Amino acid sequence: MVVQVGRVALAGMPARAVAYLIDLVLVSLVTLSLWLVVDRVPGMQPAPIEAPGRGQDAVTLGRLVVANLVLGMYFVALWSGGRRTVGMHLLRIRVVRSPDAGPVRVGAAIIRWVVFALPALGLDLLVRARPDLFGGSLALLGGALFGWPVVPFASVLFDRGRQGLHDRAARTAVVAQAPPESTAPDGQPST
């Protein structure tokens, strides 16, 4: 059974996961390149990773905030207005408005990102800024932080319409694009 939004088939979980990983690696490489340039500026080097119970300095915390903002802006900008992320382009999938398969508006893309990533990112920043608040439970909390994006992804598996929590909150769906029709030299579709 092919599940559809409008007249378009929904994308499968493997394509969605691989596209996200491609995008995550791409944005991480861009952010890392930025840090390599910033490291050459006097006073902008990050603090060494400190023992639990001690906070990191403002430069390190600022880097985390900037990295997360870059990641959020990347996804919001490319999910909205009918555009696709690099990973989605490579896997031939796209985020659309549900149920009519129209282009996603910026507000819906922001909601989608907030539900997908903000709980983990916000908690991560809090743990790094104030590890003393969490005592010996940092390892457990760290696992929960990295595990949160699995929740929206896994929710896709249990939804008949293949919508994750983030899709339902933003009223979006991820659809597969049909391959372009090949045409014969005379301009007629080939068989």
Outline the structure in words.
α1 packs across α2 (58-79), α2 runs antiparallel to α4 (106-129) and α4 (106-129) packs antiparallel against α5. With 191 residues, this protein is mainly alpha-helical. It has one domain. The chain is 53% helix and 7% strand. The two termini are 24 Å apart. The strands form 2 sheets. It has a two-stranded antiparallel sheet with strand order 1-2.
Q: How would you characterize the largest beta sheet?
A: 2 strands, antiparallel
SSE-based structural type? mainly alpha
* Element order: H for helix, E for strand: EEHHHEHHHHE
Beta content comes to 5-15%
Shape: globular
Share in helix:
40-55%
What is the total number of structural domains?
A: 1
In terms of quaternary structure, the protein is single chain
Low-confidence stretches: 51-56
Radius of gyration, in Å, reads 20 Å
Separation, N- and C-terminal Cα atoms: 24 Å
Compute the number of helices: 7
What do the pLDDT scores average to?
A: 76
What strand line-up does the widest sheet have?
Answer: 1-2
Strands, count: 4
Highlighted features:
191 residues; mainly alpha; two-stranded antiparallel ribbon; 4 strands; 53% helix; 7% strand
In short:
This protein is mainly α.
In terms of topology, how is this protein built?
Elements: E1 4-5, E2 8-9, H1 13-38, H2 58-79, H3 86-91, E3 93-97, H4 106-129, H5 138-147, H6 150-157, H7 165-170, E4 172-176
Antiparallel strand pairs: 1-2, 3-4
Helix pairs in contact: 1-2, 2-4, 4-5
